């Protein structure tokens, strides 16, 4: 079974072995909603090469992204925090791909028994809180071109691919802005040969240039994730 999820990769071998009987590799289609507000979290997902969004929908139907989940994270971390339901957030697949699915109950039982597993998952929770906090500040303080560059870098980093199957309409929902604004910002990045945009697809051409265009938020979060969780493989 693939262990391309970086969170699974840092689990001690004995912890991973105990969870192995419950791990199932699944394919997640784009647009699939893994969890609705108010529902119990029955399963957690460790993405391998798919990208998930934690979104919040307002009463008027407008949607914004609260967090991004890829191969650095696990989706459904709420299940270990005492309450297995969420009241506001929805988990949606934005780039199709594979993930490791694990039922919440055996993971929670092992979480209660194993300090090593608790340390990893609580560090992951801290990293997710840092992501949400940094994104909130970024959306308030930085211009759209910087925010778009940062968002594309975050997505690229979480699926380990320069090829992102994303529409401008979807990106506009995730950034909480009008589609016309995303179109204009994407055109500026394309004019500078940083990205190539075709209908439903964004290709990163110059990662260093995109990092230079982005605000400090991308590198700040990457450094925080590495500080909390490290980059060493489980068997490395």
Helix content: 40-55%
Please give the alpha-carbon distance between the first and last residues: 17 Å
- Secondary structure class reads alpha+beta
Main sheet specs: 4 strands, antiparallel
CATH superfamily of the largest domain: Jelly Rolls
Give start-end ranges of low-pLDDT stretches.
none
Number of strands: 10
Provide the residue-averaged pLDDT: 89
Q: Write the element-wise H/E pattern from the N-terminal end onward.
A: HHEEEEEEEHHHEHHEEHH
Strand content: 15-25%
Shape descriptor: globular
The CATH first-level class of the largest domain comes to Mainly Beta
**Strand arrangement across the biggest beta sheet:** 2-6-4-5
Question: Can you describe what's shown?
Answer:
With 236 residues, the chain is α+β, with helices and mostly antiparallel strands. It is built from nine helices and ten strands. The protein folds into two domains: 109 residues, Sandwich (Jelly Rolls), CATH 2.60.120; 72 residues, Arc Repressor Mutant, subunit A, CATH 1.10.10. The strands form three sheets. It has a four-stranded antiparallel β-sheet with strand order 2-6-4-5. A three-stranded antiparallel β-sheet has the order 1-7-3. A three-stranded antiparallel β-sheet has the order 8-10-9. The longest helix has 27 residues. The radius of gyration is 18 Å and the shape is globular. The two termini are 17 Å apart.
